[in-house]
Amino acid sequence: MPKLWNETIEAHRRAVRDAILNTTAELAAEHGVRSVTMSQIAEQAGIGRATLYKYFPDVEAILLAWHDRQITEHLGLLAEVRDQTDGAAAQLEAVLRAFAHISRESSGHHGTELGVFLHRDERVVRAQQQLHGMVRDLLAGGVEKGEFRSDVTPDELATYCLHSLTAAAALPSEAAADRLVTVTLSGLRDAHVAPEDRKPTNNHGHPGHCARHSDH
Hints:
Shape: elongated
Strand content: under 5%
Radius of gyration: 25 Å
Helix content: 55-70%
CATH superfamily of the largest domain: Tetracycline Repressor, domain 2
Order of helices and strands: HHHHHHHHH
Structural class: mainly alpha
CATH class of the largest domain: Mainly Alpha
């Protein structure tokens, strides 16, 4: 079979698959996962039921495939943003800003039946681990160059960043998400002196061995 013909068939299959995924996600978000039927999906996507079953066995399989596509696209975007920037600090900022905006855009599914269904997916755990590793490695590179605080491990700092920026899902605008990223980044750079490392001070607030004045 000619190469061009094969490519045309493959492009058609991708287009049909994408239509199925998008249609199912829209129906599930609007009506709830349990209310969606294969007949509805076929009708909305403009294909026959027999064709639909050639691609997927049931609604849950379609939703999991849609979610897998979303996760792959998001991780790909974050990797692309990272690779388009030079230096660990700049790369981390770019990744965190992109992650905050992804969190905002994905907020529509939070707390919904679709959201609950999707977050039982084991792909979510793998994606979180992959993202955590990406952020941790950038932090480690920045710590080595003195760009980030070294009193907390890169692993703990990565957890702090990602948990902090999931709050972007509740923010009203992209500008608010950017401000949250700025606040999060400031926490990576401001190492505070531990109480036991502080020098004792006298009553005037200056370092000294004793708060009492000399009689001389």
